Q: What sequence folds into this?
């Protein structure tokens, strides 16, 4: 089962290494990890998607809380979160294919950000399910490269993690 | 303005540090130069790991964080095993290491190693000091972190140029850490639930661990067991919480524990874990154990609760605060039937037999403990010697047993004994090790001599790495490899070459006379015991 964990940490040198080190030391698998400053420059938010059963998730939360630089840990329930990942996708595209790819992008809410005689580079930000569908649609043209940010997530509604 | 190195020494003085254990090198020289001017006593060990183990022994007897020091690179990496050992046993030590100059970090210069990176998985916290002005805050935090909540080692790595930077020195009065707030007080609802569960239980049992010592709650634990009328077992780290002869105490549980303790664990209906983390050596199949009994778990570390065993009533907090609250409100029950059963279990002791021409270590340790003062600190190393001490050395009221139960680090006992003796010179300190483990620490005989410490060392010499030999005999068709210690020196002559009085005991007939000599020796003493190579652990 996938768990999306939101962690607020002190924005200091070495904190990311402590967090990621904890995952490997305790034998937890990370699917993705994204980190960035919050509205308070002294605090960073790390969003981790990890795989494991409920016991694993509970242990993870407790072990993360034990790190001295950790301010807050929240495992976000799937129905309470809005999760997004940004991807940059470079595909093969000859001039005759461009218009149909453009249609796909319009429908899927993606943007073409670069173009050469034989390639197109697409930017898309969405949920995992939607991104998977986009991949399926583009696969036929030949995907040359994908760059992804990893999932970031926020709670629905007015509640915040602080 | 003073040099940061001087500030480091002042921080230690402010924390009440009287003794530090260490080994110098170029990258830590500015700090040593300031130690030269300080009242703090520096104990020169003969290997950096032993500085860490000595600090561990000191911390465990004094009840406060203790300090060890090493230089950069190899000095720091030698310290790693001691840091990991302290982490596994939750012992509060402050490790100060020198680091190469800030501008050279990352250039792979002479004696450079990323020690904060290397130690990261097994420190409670660590600091690489980049700004000299942070030193007072960092030291204040380090002592606070090491000595509160679930205790543990904290590493402070200080580049040599930082040590030489002038700073304004003001030692903070209090720690300001918004991220670190360990829970001390127990939740009253949970305390009430625990009282009710114990009162409703026909066959309750306490399992006490090293956390009780870390909390300084020995007295509070005994009061609970006595008032609530609940028998108790202990983990290895919990040995000496109860005197061996205490009517409520059944001994150490687990893989190497005594039959009585393990049977009580199996037969109880409510198991009260106090400052014990249900390690694999203590409880091999925790989920199986939890199936037919109620599990109560009291621990200061929320991550320990539910980690290894499913728990019915969890309680997070400091046992020293919590236990009196339980004791205060609990109603005592006679539990005659349970105590009768326990009494029978306790008397069912396996017979120990003497082997002609050898010392039986089990009988010997019993005799030894009978002769030593009640408040003796007994340190066991790792291997068969450790288990023999756990199960046969009879701890008296006020006595203390030390060992590394979590990490099982060979070579722990002698330096730990050094630290323990320095922390309380009035107490007798006796160290028990094997001929294998002794050879991992025998360089510390020099430290004992140099400091004039009356530490008594007993070597159980069977020319074998006995515990691995036994494992190979039982589990690997007796194919004995790499467990033979022939080639060892004459330990008696070795000790004497350091100027330490020493003797050898070969048969049980002379045991009492030799124990008398050891016990009445005024200075350090080493006694080699001739143990049969096939002697069993249990």
A:
């Amino acid at each position: 089962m996938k768990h999306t964990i939101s962690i607020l940490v002190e924005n200091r040198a070495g904190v990311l290494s402590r967090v990621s080190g904890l995952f490997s030391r305790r034998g937890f698998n990370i699917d993705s990890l994204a980190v960035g400053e919050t509205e308070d420059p002294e605090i960073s938010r790390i969003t981790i998607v990890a795989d494991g059963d409920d016991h694993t998730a509970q242990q993870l939360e407790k072990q993360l809380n034990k790190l001295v630089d950790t301010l807050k840990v929240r495992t976000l329930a799937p129905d309470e979160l809005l999760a997004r990942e940004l991807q940059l996708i470079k595909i093969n595209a000859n001039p005759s294919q461009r218009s149909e790819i453009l249609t796909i992008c319009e429908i899927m809410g993606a943007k073409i950000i670069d173009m050469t005689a034989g390639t197109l580079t697409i930017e898309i930000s969405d949920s995992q399910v939607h991104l998977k569908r986009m991949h399926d649609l583009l696969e036929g043209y030949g995907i040359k490269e994908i760059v992804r940010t990893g999932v970031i997530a926020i709670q629905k509604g007015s509640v915040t993690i602080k | 303005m003073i040099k940061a190195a001087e500030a480091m020494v002042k921080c230690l003085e402010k924390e009440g540090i009287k003794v530090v254990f260490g080994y110098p090198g170029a990258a830590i020289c500015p700090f040593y130069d300031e130690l030269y001017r300080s009242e703090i006593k520096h104990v020169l060990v003969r290997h950096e790991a032993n500085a860490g183990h000595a600090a561990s022994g000191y911390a465990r007897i004094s009840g406060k964080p203790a300090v060890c020091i090493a230089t950069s690179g190899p000095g720091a990496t030698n310290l790693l095993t001691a840091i990991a050992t302290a982490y596994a046993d939750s012992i509060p030590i402050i490790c100060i290491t020198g680091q190469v100059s800030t501008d050279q970090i990352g250039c792979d210069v002479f004696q450079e190693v990323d020690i904060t990176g290397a130690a990261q998985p097994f420190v409670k916290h660590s600091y690489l000091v980049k700004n000299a002005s942070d030193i007072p805050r960092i030291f204040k935090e380090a002592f606070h972190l090491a000595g509160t909540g679930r205790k543990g080692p904290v590493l402070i790595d200080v580049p040599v140029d930082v040590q030489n930077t002038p700073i304004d020195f003001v030692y903070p009065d209090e720690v300001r850490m918004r991220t670190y707030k360990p829970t001390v007080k127990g939740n009253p609802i949970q305390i009430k639930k625990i009282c009710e569960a114990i009162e409703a239980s026909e066959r309750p049992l306490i399992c006490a661990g090293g956390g009780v010592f870390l909390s300084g709650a020995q007295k509070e634990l005994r009061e609970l067991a006595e008032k609530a009328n609940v028998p108790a077992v202990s983990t290895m780290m919990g040995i000496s919480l109860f005197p061996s002869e205490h009517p409520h105490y059944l001994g150490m549980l687990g893989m190497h524990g005594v039959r009585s303790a393990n049977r009580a664990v199996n037969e109880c209906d409510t198991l009260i874990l106090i400052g014990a983390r249900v390690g694999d050596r203590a409880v091999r199949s925790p989920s199986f154990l939890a199936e037919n009994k109620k599990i109560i778990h009291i621990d200061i570390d929320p991550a320990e609760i539910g980690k290894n065993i499913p728990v019915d009533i969890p309680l997070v907090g400091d046992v020293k605060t919590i236990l009196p609250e339980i004791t205060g409100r609990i109603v005592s029950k006679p539990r005659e039937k349970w105590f009768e059963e326990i009494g029978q279990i306790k008397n069912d002791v396996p017979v120990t037999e003497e082997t002609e021409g050898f010392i039986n270590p089990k009988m010997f340790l019993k005799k030894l403990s009978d002769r030593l003062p009640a408040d003796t600190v007994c340190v066991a190393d790792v291997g068969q010697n450790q288990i023999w001490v756990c199960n046969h050395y009879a701890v008296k009221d006020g006595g203390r047993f030390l060992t590394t139960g979590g990490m099982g680090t060979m070579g722990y006992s002698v330096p730990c004994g050094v630290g323990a003796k320095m922390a309380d010179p009035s107490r007798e300190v006796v160290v028990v090790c094997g001929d294998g483990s002794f050879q991992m620490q025998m360089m510390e005989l020099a430290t004992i001599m140099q400091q004039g410490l009356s530490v008594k060392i007993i070597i159980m010499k069977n020319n074998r790495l006995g515990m691995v030999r036994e494992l190979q005999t039982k589990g690997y068709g007796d194919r004995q490899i790499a467990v033979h210690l022939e080639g060892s020196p004459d330990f008696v002559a070795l000790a004497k070459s350091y100027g330490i009085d020493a003797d050898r005991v070969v048969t049980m007939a002379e045991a009492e006379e030799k124990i008398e000599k050891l016990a009445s020796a005024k200075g350090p003493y080493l006694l080699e015991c001739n143990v049969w190579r096939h002697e069993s652990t249990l």
Q: What stands out?
A: Chain A touches chain B through 18 residues (CB under 8 Å).
